[in-house]
Design brief:
Layout (H helix, E strand, L loop, with lengths): L4 E12 L2 E12 L3 E5 L6 H9 L4 E8 L2 E2 L5 H5 L3 E4 L11 H6 L11 H7 L1 H5 L10 H13 L5 E5 L7 H16 L3 E5 L3 H4 L5 E6 L2 E7 L7 H8 L2
Parallel strand pairs: 3-8, 3-9, 6-7, 7-8
Antiparallel strand pairs: 1-2, 1-4, 4-5, 9-10
């Protein structure tokens, strides 16, 4: 891997039981980049994130993260290398307070954000820190799901549909947070259905179709690729 290359996926195949979902995905992400995986539902975007972490029945090929091969490692070992995953379902513990949810995941590496730094990023969470998970709004729960992995020390953030179903003011806040994290040398792989949210954030957009990479589009190529994106994404 080159010095700047942080994540390199080569010939990645993934299976749920007998179902063959990914068919040889190739993808590279440089340190400090934001790369967005775009595609229709069922294209294989979430499966790509889960396959990076080993949260899938079977995977073959190569997933190199910061010089380490991840294929063959269990998910907890991968997480301890500095990979954080924010799933679409959020996974907020209803019986715990906002702050207890934040403190629950273990630190897996040095450099995780302190509670004070997290509350600076997400003032809403500070205001609601004593509220139970069930009493948080959908937007607050999404902020909490993202914030929770920042304490762990993870530097590669896998974010799955973080803008889905949220009010515009919350979506704007999440975009601001992602920009702030990138400025602090975090690396982000973003699965998004919301093209208007993802496009301004991403250095490159990777279009996934039927478990394969159909196109890689750099930020400066967006205008010239509008017709293609309209055809494959309906944007």
């Amino acid at each position: 891997m080159s010095a700047a290359e942080y994540l390199r996926i080569t010939g990645l195949h993934a299976f749920y039981g007998e179902s063959h979902i990914l068919h040889g995905v190739d993808l590279d992400v440089r340190r400090g980049e934001c790369v967005s995986l775009l595609g229709r539902n069922g294209a294989g975007r979430t499966t790509t994130l889960r396959a990076i972490l080993g949260l899938i029945g079977r995977r073959t090929g190569s997933v190199m993260f910061n010089g380490r091969e991840l294929i063959g490692l269990p998910p907890h070992r991968i997480a301890r290398l500095g990979v954080g995953y924010c799933p679409e379902e959020r996974g907020i513990y209803a019986s715990l307070s906002c702050e207890e949810n934040l403190l629950l995941p273990p630190r897996v590496a040095g450099g995780g954000l302190t509670l004070e730094a997290i509350y600076d990023l997400f003032p809403n969470l500070h205001e609601r820190r004593r509220s139970q998970g069930t009493r948080l709004s959908g937007g607050e729960q999404q902020m909490l799901a993202v914030a929770r992995i920042l304490r762990t020390g993870a530097r590669l953030l896998l974010l799955d549909e973080v803008s889905e179903g949220l009010a515009p003011v919350i979506v704007t806040k999440l975009a601001e947070v992602i920009r702030t994290l990138r400025a602090s040398d975090y690396t982000v792989v973003l699965v998004e259905q919301n093209f208007r949210f993802a496009a301004p954030l991403a250095d490159r957009m990777v279009v996934i179709e039927r478990g394969r990479v159909a196109a890689v589009i750099a930020q400066h190529e967006l205008d010239s690729k509008r017709d293609f994106l309209q055809e494959v994404l309906g944007v």
